[in-house]
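Record 1 of the preview.
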Amino acid sequence: MPTETLQQKSSNNKNGKFLSNKKILIIVFAFLVMIGLVVVSVTSILHEFSFSKLLSDVHDAFVDSKTRLMASIMLCLLILFFFFKFFNMTVPYMIRLKHLGIKVSSKDATLYYLTSLFFSAISPSILITEPYTMFWLKTQGVTTAQATALIWINEFINHTILIIITLPAFIWLTTQFNQIIAFNSGEGWTVIILASVGMGIDIFMFSFYIVSGFSKKVHYYLSRTFNWTKKILHLHYHTKSQTYSKYISSAFLYRYAKHYLKQYKDNVYVLLCYLFTSIIWFVMVYASLVLVHYQGADFFNGLTFIKVIGNVAVITTANRYLPLPGGEGTMQLQMHILLSYENKTTDSGVDNAIFTWRFFTAYLPAIYGIGGFCFYLSSFAKSVKNKKPIFKK
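->
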């Protein structure tokens, strides 16, 4: 196992402050933006959305004996999504920490999960969620280098699964581009452009994860660029020799990454977690369609389960890197375009199903996350006030 110097360990165990007053204001602002986008999405993008029609359709699905069982199963899946998501956001890191001999308490795991749900709902993951994950891992007793490598190996596995699922779906969608544009009077270009850009970034990120795990120089040159930017902005930065010592001579990140790649058993468990939640994510849209449009063939009109998965995979990729809270707004717009095209209709059922999907997979988890974030904020403030160590030794 790679080791670090006593000086580095000492610096990693000092009290840190993840949330400053400025960051809290930014988070509050991002939350308000998310609320605004939800309102815009429901009122402006989902033109045919009808809450009364939604409740009526769900009621009819449970009244009809032919559809009651299927509707019950789909509703259970939607409700349980909150628990399924735990296997995507928290369990992979619990697996890694257990291998390091660190047992995460139920309280810590739940609090991390709820807070991450909130952060992922109000911002792209790279802006808040991943820095928070780094901070949380350090509070569990790992060093900065270990935490960075843990995030790298888990994200590498996650992106591998996403590429395997999304790339065939994107290739299939390219064969439908002309028809999508024709059916949606040109609005289909929104899906095509965002999907193409998202797929390109996905491939780039996947390649980056591969290269960064096997090359010391990647870490070195990225750090050089980062410190050059900090120098221009008159911020504290590392010199060229300091950067060389950290990433080439010592190469802590590189050595940890190589170490975690060889943990085959843990890697398989993490892969299964991500694969399971990816499948569940795709099923959520289909469950919403079934729940709202229980009539079956009258609605689906050739919209098969496989087509739904393909559409969701492409749309998820198209929105993954957009600077919007949870892809709010663009996610609904693209889903409306694709489902309307596949179903050859623009009735209220499509928009009602999209709202149902977003309610159970985005809005409801965000509400739970607010409670977790407030509790975390209170605990964090108490630790700082009582001068308790934030990072475990």
